[in-house]
Structures are given as structure tokens and as C-alpha cells.
Write a structure and sequence with these properties.
The protein is α/β, with parallel strands linked by helices. The chain is built from 13 helices and eleven strands.
Length: 271
């Protein structure tokens, strides 16, 4: 099987289609399948088009969906909308684009949501995104040589191990991560996989973990010290900072599309 792997699409449908076309993805090819490593929505303006596209791929059995932290955020918003209406534009759901995504999907405005939260929730829970797409999402997907996640695999935590920094956290590999609880997976979706792999040596022996969540320019800037984390887009070759960050056992794909306009596509053939 040839897998076309993306992460953190964040509602940018046209950027996704262009990137997949450039790599030769063809949903009519029986050997092709798309993997989305979480954060399908939030921030981008094409939530409706993206929802329709993913539903079409699901109908064809051409997509594998990994759950991201933004999927957790959208569920939290729906459950707790009554609370968030009291601080609507100060809410992290507003700044993260979650509210905007929901408004696109249910065709409601800020005013409508604030003044009729029950109607908002009723319409939102009946969207295909909530009823069909999110329930189909996995915590991880594994092939013979690869593991696909959003942030990273769940791991164990050891606190206060750095004598000069008592608040620092040390992470330890957990060989039983596949059996982690849903709460542990929710935490793992917020991890910086590059940091855990490089600084804490948390990798899966014999396999490569492909992740999203944390913009890959972080690895180029803080590990390789080659590019700035958010380079000036007027500078030559600024886009190289958003190319996939790779090292042994790791591929990070999040190109921070909201800033860069780029969606990375990793193509692998594996069983």
C-alpha cells in the first residue's frame, strides 16, 4: 500500500488538494490511501469543503484518520458552550479557530452562537464532522515499519529529575503505550514529538514514528539550529524551515499551514 501522509490540515482544503495532487495521490488507485495525523479542522476557511472531501474518501475506504488535540477541543467546546459564551472572544476556542470552524459547519455567526448556544449545539452534534468523522478517528495507526500519531506516543513521566530546574519534567519510554488509557492519549496529543524523541530518546525500537501537532520548524530551529522557528517570509528560502523534520525514528510533518501556507505530504510504501 502507498500511503500519503499529512498532518494538521487545519481547515485548509485547497492547500491539501494541491499538495496531494503534486505528490500524485489518486483515490481511484486501489493502492493509494491518505493518512491524516490529526487536527483536520480549526483556523482555515474551508471547513465545509474539507468535511465533504473526507466523507467522500471515507465512503471509498481511502482515508485513515488519527485524532488530534483540536478534535478534543471541538468536543470540549460543544460540551461546555454555556461556559464559553461568558468569555466568548477571550476563549482559547476563539483564538484557536475552533469556534470559527463550528460556525462554518452550522452556518451561524458569533452573535447567533452567543445568544442561542442550544441551537448551536443541536446543529453541531448533527454535523457529519461530529457524527461520522471524529468517531472514525484512531489514537494511532501502525504498519510494519511506521507508527502514525498526532503529538507522540504516550509515555511515563518522572518529575524533578533536573537538579538545577526542579520544575522540569523527564519523560520515560513506556513499552506498553499501545494499551494507554484515553486520558493518556489525550495528553499525548499535546506532546512535542521532536522534543521527546531527541531530548528524551522516546522512540519505538525498529520503527519510525510520524507525527504532527508541533510545527516542524521547531526542530530545524531548536535542534539543528539551522533556520528560525518563524522565518520572515520575505527572506529567501524561508519555506525550508517548514519542510519535514526528520531524524532516526522520527518524521515531523506539521508545516504550520496558518503561517506558511504549506502542507507537507510524506509518501511511504508499507504493509
Amino acid at each position: 500500500m502507498k500511503y500519503f501522509v499529512v498532518a494538521d490540515v487545519h481547515g485548509y482544503y485547497y492547500e491539501l488538494i494541491n499538495a496531494l495532487n503534486e505528490k500524485g495521490f489518486n483515490p481511484k488507485d486501489e493502492n493509494h490511501k491518505l493518512i491524516v495525523c490529526g487536527d483536520l479542522m480549526d483556523r482555515g476557511p474551508e471547513a465545509v469543503q474539507l468535511q465533504k472531501y473526507i466523507l467522500e474518501l471515507m465512503e471509498m475506504d481511502k482515508v485513515i484518520l488519527i485524532k488530534g488535540n483540536h478534535e478534543d477541543l471541538i468536543l470540549d467546546l460543544i460540551i461546555n458552550i454555556g461556559f464559553y459564551t461568558f468569555r466568548f472572544r477571550d476563549s482559547h476556542h476563539y483564538s484557536n479557530g475552533t469556534i470559527d470552524t463550528c460556525e462554518q459547519l452550522v452556518k451561524m455567526s458569533d452573535y447567533d452562537v452567543m445568544h442561542n448556544p442550544l441551537k448551536f449545539v443541536t446543529k453541531m452534534v448533527n454535523t457529519p464532522f461530529i457524527k461520522t468523522i471524529i468517531p472514525a478517528m484512531k489514537n494511532y495507526f501502525e504498519t510494519e515499519h511506521y507508527i502514525f500519531v498526532h503529538g507522540w506516543i504516550p509515555c511515563m513521566v518522572e518529575k524533578s529529575v533536573y537538579p538545577n530546574n526542579p520544575k522540569a519534567t523527564k519523560y520515560k519510554y513506556n513499552a506498553d503505550w499501545r494499551s494507554a488509557s484515553e486520558e493518556q492519549w489525550e495528553e499525548a496529543r499535546w506532546f512535542n514529538g521532536m522534543e521527546l524523541a531527541h531530548k528524551h530518546n522516546i522512540k519505538e525500537p525498529g520503527k519510525t514514528i510520524v507525527c504532527g501537532h508541533w510545527h516542524c520548524s521547531w526542530g530545524w530551529a531548536h535542534i539543528l539550529q539551522k533556520y528560525k522557528e518563524f522565518p520572515n517570509k520575505s527572506r529567501k528560502n524561508w519555506e525550508k524551515a517548514f519542510e519535514p523534520y526528520t531524524e532516526e525514528g522520527l518524521v515531523a510533518l506539521d508545516a504550520c499551514t496558518y503561517y506558511s501556507g504549506i502542507i507537507n505530504v510524506l509518501v511511504v510504501e508499507d504493509d
